[in-house]
Amino acid sequence: MHDDSPRAADLLAQRLYEAGCRHAFGMPGGEVLTLVDALEQAGITFHLTKHENAAGFMAEAVHHRDRAPAILVATLGPGAMNGINVVANALQDRVPMIVLTGCVDADEALTYTHQVMDHAQVYRSITKGTFTLTAQGADIIADKAVSLANQPRPGPVHIDIPISIADTRVSGVKRRRLAKPAAVAPEGNCVEKARRWVAEAERPIAIIGLDVLYDNSRNVVQAFLEHFNIPFVTTYKAKGVLPEDHPLCLGGAGLSPLADKHLVPLVEQADLVLCLGYDPIEMRPGWREIWDPAEKRVIEISAVVNDHYMHQAGLNLVAHIGATLEAIAKGNPARTTWSEGQPQQVKAALAEAFPTDDDWGPAAVIAEARATLPAHTLATADSGAHRILLSQMWDCHEERGLIQSSALCTMGCAVPMAIGLKLVEPDRPVISFSGDAGFLMVAGELSTAAEMGGNPIFLVFVDASLALIELKQRQRQMGNTGVDFDRHDFAAMGRAFGGNGHTVRNREELRAALNEAMKAETFTVIAAEIDRGGYDGRI
């Protein structure tokens, strides 16, 4: 008699579908075939990639559009190990991700050693939690994983799935769901103190971080800053949480010493600093302890307790950002701030520091791309010198309009992220910005782009060097070692994988290539050849 009871893998897949997941990415092996089948049966499409690391970045990109946890699937042993980088990235970059790995059954692992290793032990330090699926507990484990991945601050959760457990039929399951907590704001003396500090501030400034992206406080944050006339800086992850053409916006901060030269002194002049969901894991050392809370009023509103010691605050509120700001603003009148116009002066200085009118070079490439592509273009950035420049120059009109690895800063993320974005936003222009070294790490995923369809644009800065490392090497007066390589025909790579390819050496050629790429039926690789040293004095 046929048993119609769900398999344990089905219960897991159904909970992921319930969480909003519609896409999973990875490389299958015999140990995860039941899992892949269960995902498909539940309505979650499994996408084959060429490497688990790239699969994770595609999954992350999908998360940035549908807000559901990313799903990475890997088979045992080498498959699970290939995903280490992207899972560590998800932990540092606060990406909710469910990492599903296949494994042999516990009894078999007692006497069988081929490709057998302790996945949980490896993943424990780079995830928020790790579980081994059981048949009767499959639904509970799935719910725990989804809940833990989404809890502040979000991150990856690993589930190891034994082969026979995935296939086990389960009956009589009582499904349980962890209740979602309501938004909570502080009360009493803390709020009164915050209200008084805001009312008395003559030179306030806000630093906005990625917590705002996850608690839906965007509109309240904007209303609060506008009401009290508070200029603001965002981390790179929070770029676009308020449109960057807003008069109070001073742009992104994180890795650029050139931008810091203008932004840090303004923070030092402030008499009140508001840290709104500010997670300093994205920031360079120049932002470490740049104020003394004994001398400067600092209000921190965050999703979790500040235990990083990158900075400290005189008033720490672990609460919902929007609800807390509403409580602080209630009955508090608007007032004039920065009477000498310092924020406007800094904004003008930043515009001069990052000009858009270069004839050619990395800044010209970015400026021309931003001017040519529509405002609603979605962009991804790989790590390298170009990312620092791009993060300052690429204006975002919406949150997550530019995504990148800004905490772990791992190379090879931009191309797969762009593929993931195009998958879920087929009608919007999508462009990735990669250095030539980062692009070479994931060039094989051009075949995935061709297989998935759509016309993402992959722009490569070609200078045949690890430009950021080479720059640091010269700054330390060291010899040129291990940072240069040959120039390659990246446009030909695009054509070889069934896409389009262009090599450009000036603005006019770039503009024409971008316009052609937006009309193309398949992907386009644009190789922008620039001189070495083009980033000197620019980042």
Automatic annotation (TrEMBL):
The keyword Ion transport does not apply. One of its GO terms (biological process) is isoleucine biosynthetic process. Residues 191-328 form the Thiamine pyrophosphate enzyme central domain. Residues 7-121 form the Thiamine pyrophosphate enzyme N-terminal TPP-binding domain. GO terms for cellular component: acetolactate synthase complex. InterPro entries: DHS-like_NAD/FAD-binding_dom (IPR029035), THDP-binding (IPR029061), Thiamin_PyroP_enz_cen_dom (IPR012000), Thiamin_PyroP_enz_TPP-bd_dom (IPR012001), TPP-bd_CS (IPR000399), TPP_enz (IPR045229), TPP_enzyme_TPP-bd (IPR011766). PROSITE patterns: TPP_ENZYMES. Residues 382-527 form the Thiamine pyrophosphate enzyme TPP-binding domain. The keyword Transferase applies. One of its GO terms (molecular function) is magnesium ion binding. Keywords: Thiamine pyrophosphate, Transferase. It holds the Pfam family TPP_enzyme_M. Belongs to the TPP enzyme family. This is Acetolactate synthase. The lineage of its organism: Bacteria, Pseudomonadati, Pseudomonadota, Alphaproteobacteria, Rhodobacterales.
